[in-house]
Design brief:
- The structure is a single chain.
- The chain starts with a helix and ends in a 6-residue tail after the last helix.
- The longest helix is centred in the first third of the chain and has 33 residues.
- It has 198 residues and is mainly alpha-helical.
- 46% of the residues are buried.
Length: 198
Amino acid sequence: MSIMRLLQQAQGGQGLGQLASQLGLDDAQAESLTSLLAPAIGSAARQRAESGGLGDVLGRLRGQDQAGLFDDAEAAASSDGQAQGRDFLSALLGGQEAADGLADEAAARSGVDRDLVSQFLPALAAMAQGGLQRQMPDDQIDAAEEEAQGGGLAGMIGGLLGGGGSSRGGGLGMLNDLLDADGDGSAMDDVLGRFLRR
């Protein structure tokens, strides 16, 4: 399941619409932005892992303390939820400047007001982080780390990026599926990739 599909299932399929309502967007705008931003978040996590930061990605999925943001659009859209999302994005993208660049590009491509995008992006990231925590609890993260110990760092990264680990039922396989950028072969990762490369 990609992050895009995960977000589409939030709150019984109503989460994105409720998030849009909280922030003054209509459903079409929210869907357009999500189709841009969800693949970017997935790609950012994968690239962060590939550059040696997989432990940090896994660490941000531990504890289940943000899982409730997946189930509550109001919480994700709140100032605290957006702050959590900004922190998550900053860690994945390598800083706030890159997150701002992603918001600028998404606003230009979607036609949605930049100020609205700057609120929607971190709220969406918070919801995504909560969904990832919900889908991959701590025991799955432990399994991913154990798999990695068997093959070293290269084995961990290889599994995350679609190597042998993705075909198994363990933690790396699940994480690889969740961080599949969009699951449909879209080139959107490449379109927004300049904001995701370090």
